[in-house]
Each structure stands twice: as C-alpha cells, then as structure tokens.
What does this fold into?
Amino acid sequence: MTLTIHDVAQRTGLTTYTLRYYAKEGLLDFVTRSSNKLGTRLFKESDLEFIYLIKCLKNAGLSIKEIKTFVDWTMAGDSTIAERRDMFQKRRTALQQQMADLQATLEPV
It folds into this structure.
C-alpha cells in the first residue's frame, strides 16, 4: 500500500510543504516516484520510519546539510556506520552542553 504526501504529513506531523522542501533538498531520495508525467511520490510504510528519523535529527538541531549527509551515508550502507555513530556522538555532546547551559541560566543568582 502506498501513501500520499498528505497521508505522510498527517501521520508524521510535518506539513506537506516541509516534506516537499525535504524532497527538494534531497532528503527523500529514497522515496519511489510514479512513472506518470507528474512523478508523484509513492511513500511506503517503511519510508515513514526514515522520515521520523529525519524529524528527530532536525529536532536535535542538525542542519539540512548535515541531515543530507546522514541520509547519503545511510543509503551507502554499513560501510558508513562509524561516520553515522560519530555524528550522533558529536551531536549528543553538543546537546548535553546546551542543556547544561540552559540549566545554568535557570539557576538563581
């Protein structure tokens, strides 16, 4: 069963505009397209998992360029696991520092 961009938007909480922007930026190259003149995106259930991951990466503060790199590494296969792990670890460290900075801001003077 295929899903439309509207179905995916409803299920992921992203707008159709955001999904189209992500597609334009190359983040959704894994989604198949119809053979008709319009080339409509034909999302599968398994595509949703990857879109949720993209959404998580965006929420963690990665830029579109960084997410594109991650997507490219993922599509390249297991040979890029170390690079992906390193990206996650660096972002985790940055988020922990950001959380510590915010916590310090909230502490009374």
Notes: The first strand starts at residue 32 and ends at 33. The helical segments are 5-12, 16-24, 45-59, 64-76, 81-106.
